[in-house]
Amino acid sequence: MTTTLQQLPREIASGLLSINAVALRPNEPFTWTSGMKSPIYCDNRLTMSYPEIRELIAEGFATVIREQFPDCEAVAGIATGGIPHAAWVAQKLNLPMLYVRDKAKGHGKTNQIEGHFKPGQKVVLIEDLISTGGSSLKAAVAVREAGCEVQGVVAIFTYQFPHAAAAFEQEGIPLATLSNYSALIEVAAEKGIVQSSDVALLQSWRENPQAFGV
């Protein structure tokens, strides 16, 4: 399978919609755990069960790493959603794989990072979804504090919140994603999943999520 970076956002968005990994309800918003109202719900864990979609994602990750992080020496999955994708990508690139917990284990060797790594190793982290970016950055900082060089974080999808992009920039960690909220809305409108009259409402959520549905 040959995948180009230009094709990825729409191809991945279409794939996620086809398996209901993302659902859009602009007029009946979901309520997140935080209490925030959202017109979108994303569960990229579903991609594990669809070989064609997970292959598209794996090849997309591999393409991004080859083109944007060619010096990568290890791939690290961020628990839990990024772990299976990191395994498939590491296999494609013939690179070592690691995974990063949200915190160190409370028993045994008390590891937060699993797998063999060495100081100075160039690592790219794999994530399934970027919302605020907090958990992804926490994992990236843990890898950096362990002595590795974090080249960047690559995720399947991002809501494109401006404050998430700013957080990565402030930490000095590059972020790349295979698809994004804008591409998803575009593809969903073309497929008739959402009405064209709902597009402006959907776009307003990304710009000011706290005010949506209030």
Automatic annotation (TrEMBL):
Pfam families: Pribosyltran (PF00156). One of its GO terms (molecular function) is magnesium ion binding. One of its GO terms (biological process) is pyrimidine nucleobase biosynthetic process. 5-phospho-alpha-D-ribose 1-diphosphate binds at residues 101, 105, 107, 127-135. Belongs to the purine/pyrimidine phosphoribosyltransferase family. PyrE subfamily. Homodimer. This is Orotate phosphoribosyltransferase.
